[in-house]
Amino acid sequence: MKKLSVLFAAVMMFMSFGVAKAQKIATVDVAAILNMMPEKIKADEQLKAFSTAKQAELEKLATAFQADVQKYQQEGAKLTAQQREAKEAELGKTQQNLQQMSQTAQKDLLDRQDAAYAPIEKRLNDAITRAAKANGWDFIFDSATNGLIYKAGPDATAAVKKELGI
């Protein structure tokens, strides 16, 4: 009976050793890597140029609208009631068009951002996967997120950069 107990204890110890295998965890600074990727830098520049162009266009139209409003305020007293109603309706329509153009520009910018960043994020995720497999990491956490409570594992940032060639 004693031999059976010893054998049972040995088997349980052996099994628990396999179950208790330490999981390898690493962290990576995703934002830092993204900001170093040439294609992300290029995409940021293109998106900034697009945004600046749209903003300049909207500002030009808004300035013209403001000039029309000021002109109406100065000359409104000289107009008949019917002319004033027509001018106010025209100004209201112009204001609505400006707001719609602004919303459209914002949506266009977001669509362009999504289209530009999707392949960049895929490339980064693929590199993280390759680095994790190459180094035997079971989990990799983004070190910049607030969800990370404990950070003592190896840092995967260098390995991911190596996979990306940066």
From TrEMBL:
Keywords, ordered alphabetically: Coiled coil, Signal
Classification via InterPro entries: Chaperone_Skp, Skp_dom_sf
GO cellular component: cytosol
Signal peptide interval: 1-22
GO molecular function: unfolded protein binding
Coiled coil regions in record: 55-104
SMART domains: OmpH
Record GO biological process: protein stabilization
Keyword Signal: yes
Similarity comment: Belongs to the Skp family.
Protein name in the entry: Outer membrane family protein
Organism: Cloacibacterium normanense
